[in-house]
Write a structure and sequence with these properties.
Blueprint (H helix, E strand, L loop, with lengths): L18 H10 L2 H5 L18 H18 L4 H10 L8 H13 L7 H12 L10 H8 L10 H25 L9 H7 L3 H19 L6 H19 L5 H19 L11 H10 L3 H12 L8
């Protein structure tokens, strides 16, 4: 796709950058993008310096998307813009935070999905409520990078698969580095198909996606490689992301739940932004970084250490 179908609000051409380059630049300069550096990918407040954050995940996934788009002769700028914006709506504490907020909202008859909230961030929350006024193609790719509905562009389809390629492999790498899993714990079927080392697995997946997409005329992995990727992904969800025995995950979920309930009951203390109190509270809590959420939780719920008579 070379040209955009337009924006929610008309803007004249830039004269230097195409529409998708402008979207990329707006996302990079957004406050929500900067906050990604302090949001969990998998590990909450890790001791080491080399664990991924939501920001480094975004950059690694963007690189994979651009490589595939270039090899297939598609629009790299569009793939890059979707990649950079796809996780802007993620909560603090990664999958754990998202699940906790979704569970809390379920009791109120609401839902929460980070892809939908990412679209809300770029449409309504950035620039003081004005939004970034992104192109319809980038908005579509952000909204549909996960979930039942697929993107309407081939570049969006690339991002949808590249997201899984990136996080499955670098999350395995981080889990191994942390010591919570060992190489021999990984499922043998997917590892034998994709490769033992992270670089080998990514190489297998990217090359397979390029070759298979060329052959079929649609963005896809071959069936065997796709099944291996999804089996490894399911294994991660069971053993790393949603480990019911993880006390750290349980504590992180409690932080998100308690903060949401507190700010829903104390509207005067949250940032104003929407007439609906539930939506406004979701916007406030989901926008927190890990460290801001933890600092706020300590301030609201933990004693400060004074000596009492």
């Amino acid at each position: 796709m070379e040209r955009s179908a337009g924006r929610l609000r008309f803007e004249p051409p830039d004269g230097v950058r195409n529409d998708f380059q402008r979207d990329r630049d707006r996302i990079i300069h957004a406050k929500a993008f900067r906050r990604l550096m302090h949001k969990t990918q998998v590990f909450i407040s890790p001791d080491g310096d080399h664990y991924r954050t939501r920001l480094t995940h975004t950059l690694e996934m963007m690189q994979i998307s651009r490589t595939i788009a270039r090899s297939l002769g598609l629009n790299e700028d569009l793939a890059e813009a979707i990649s950079l914006g796809h996780d802007l709506g993620h909560t603090p504490f990664g999958h754990t935070g998202e699940a906790a907020l979704a569970q809390t909202l379920m009791s109120l008859g609401r839902t929460f999905r980070h892809n939908e909230h990412s679209l809300r961030v770029v449409d309504h929350l950035e620039r003081g409520g004005e939004g970034l006024n992104l192109t319809v193609e980038v908005r579509d790719g952000i909204r549909n990078h996960t979930g039942e509905v697929h993107p309407s562009t081939r570049e969006g389809e690339i991002v949808r698969i590249a997201d899984r390629i990136a996080y499955v492999n670098h999350d395995v790498d981080d889990a191994l580095r942390s010591g919570i899993i060992r190489m021999e714990d990984l499922p043998t079927g997917p590892i034998s198909t994709l490769g033992e080392q992270m670089s080998a697995r990514i190489n297998t997946l990217v090359r397979d996606m390029i070759l298979n997409s060329r052959a079929k005329g649609e963005i896809s992995l071959s069936s065997g490689v796709y099944e291996a990727l999804m089996e490894l992904r399911s294994w991660l969800f069971r053993n790393v992301y949603n480990d019911p025995g993880s006390r750290e995950n349980q504590k992180a979920a409690g932080v998100v739940t308690n903060l949401f309930e507190y700010y829903l009951e104390h509207p005067e203390e949250r940032a104003p932004g929407d007439s609906d109190p539930i939506t406004e509270t979701v916007d406030f809590v989901a926008g927190m970084t890990d460290r801001y959420a933890l600092a706020t939780y300590r301030r609201l719920f933990l004693p400060r250490g004074e000596t009492f008579a």
